[in-house]
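Shape matters. Shown next:

___
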Amino acid sequence: MLRITTLSLARLAVTCNITFVRPYGAMAPKARRPVQQVEERMARYSNEHKEETRRRIIEAAGRRLKRDGIDGSGIAALMADAGLTNGAFYAHFGSKDDLVASVVQEELRRQSATLNGLAPGVAGVEQLVRGYLSPEHRDHRDEGCPSAALLDEIGRSAELTKDAYTAGTKNLVDELAERLSSPDDPESAHGRALILFTMMVGTLQLARAVTDPALSDEALAQGLDRALTFLGDATVADSSRNQTTGESR
């Protein structure tokens, strides 16, 4: 019986210039099929596109909520700002409370990032105070601090939103405290940071609430002066405390 081997077939192919076609499925190379590759690329694009859309909704909603308030902003308006329809909302958020909480979280994260981008130490805190208590910040609430714009409504919001605000604010105050702290008295720095933050927020809210431009400007000017004085006094107090501690040792 004629015995055909792989080697003999190979020699025959070379001699006679024959091309053998591999039977379908027989020892096929283990490679991803083109359809599988396309499906994987589409899945990656789908996930990336969904995340990018979610970010766009949160960013646009942040501006709308700070300008018109939580109660004054419906889902239709929030989605229209992002260039989307109502039908796309529930593909990204379980409810309006879910969106509001996500916005609050992102706004406070961005505020912390802004602080981290300023000069180190107390100098960066002074930069923050001057920018915060400025006419530009007062007049552009949709681009500003979520606390001054939404604090009263956040207090009446769902626990999900209040939890997001609490976590973000604690992080921001901790970052301020770190810049104001001394190794000998870190607890005092946290209290000063909290006082400074509340001074800034309260001053800006008052400046926005009054209809008299002169009174609004005066509130900002007085608030800025008091905040900088408080910041300077706190820094001097820390220096004096450290010097006294060093002498006592």
In short: Confidence is low (pLDDT under 50) at residues 237-249. The two ends are 105 Å apart (CA to CA).
